[in-house]
Amino acid sequence: MESSKSTNLTFTSEAMGLGISIGSDCTPSGSSHSYWCVGHIINIAMSSEHSDTSLSSDGSIILPVPQPQAGHRMALDNINAGRWLPQLDCRRLLEQLPREQFIWSESLLEPDLDAQGVLDLWSGSKRHAKACVDHGAPWVLCYEWMEDCVKQNLLSLQVRSFIEECAHAGCFRAFGGGPVCSSMSRARWTFNGRLFVATGNFKQMLQICGIVMAPLIARYASTGHSENLPWSNLAKCKAVVPPVRSAQYPYGKPNISKAMRVKVRHGNSFAKWAAKLVKEFYKTMLFWVENPDSSFFWLLPCWRVLKRRRVGSFMRLDYCRFGAPWRKRTAFFTNINGLEGVKCFCTGGHEHQVLRGASPSGVMWTKVAEPYPHHVADLLATAISHAAGWEESCDVVDVCAFSARASSELMWPDRLTQHV
User: Fold this and answer.
1) What confidence tens digit (pLDDT) does each residue in 232-265 have?
2) Same domain, 165 and 294
3) Whole-number percent of the chain with pLDDT over 70
4) Domain range holding 15?
5) CA separation (Å) from 161 to 101, 154, 348?
6) Co-location of 263 and 159 in the same domain
7) Which residues contact 3 (CB under 8 A, 6 or more apart)?
8) Start-end of H helices in 146-243
């Protein structure tokens, strides 16, 4: 069991004005006024003006306090519990960071650090961060190692510990990001010029063998007559990128190159830490974590546990539905209302830019496709803003409406030109 932290608080009239209250789910830890609540031991020292404050029969402190002000930083024991704890260290923590890491409204000289904001991990182009501010977030704290390879390096235990401390203090209302996991890709194969992803799926294996007729696939799959399959066609298949993980070795195969071992280790570290954040904060914060839909990332044991516990669910998107010239099917694991369980896949009728080789500008296509399409960033920001109460809306976010709007804005040639 993790040890609880101890916090000494003196309740004065000023503190009372912050809307501090401790609910009935706090339990006495001794005969003195010490209580355990949300992982903290809170030692209460009443000021003289509130010395007559009493304890209820269940050990909770009865204080005549008003409701917390809208947008004021408090941490919830449960996202729907309605019991609040004071978070007095947030400003002190956030002011340690350079202002360059924050994005906030241009109408303000400084970010409002007295309000909860958004944590944007692996920020990249910061499209999502900017969209959050456009939709009412007081501020967004960004971490992108290419801007500062030391203080924003999410492989650093010191950086991670600071972020976790801020999260425990209640600085963030939401967090999200797409861990950089280049070693999570599955093997890719070509057969007669066609590209396939080796998912281990029987249907796709037959496709690689050149059998693409659905009735024939169904017949082989049901009878199991593998001797009738044209195995000789497998000799024509060529591995483009060999996998460095498998179902047996989800955290990396034993016999891989030294350079790839480093990538695998970094990918595992990012994946485990992202899973840790979700596990610790899914009750008190909105979250989303993104990776390619077919990525080994989702098959790692740490993520399988979270899926079994149903702390969130998947939103699965094809980016071509949101204005991108490539499909790039992507999965978002999230607890945000309106996004959970959504599927928005390609409906056909257009070509897809293959993300292989270099674009006309000389940049690799995979690099060109890294930023989230603007409409995807706007979708995530809108959903967070509605759930956090920064934008008033009685309607659930309509993912299909975002997709339809994106599709109507750009036709295929314009999409390609815009991204190149």
Assistant:
1) 444 444 444 677 898 889 999 998 999 999 999 9
2) yes
3) 61
4) 5-78
5) 17, 10, 46
6) yes
7) none
8) 157-169, 202-208, 214-223
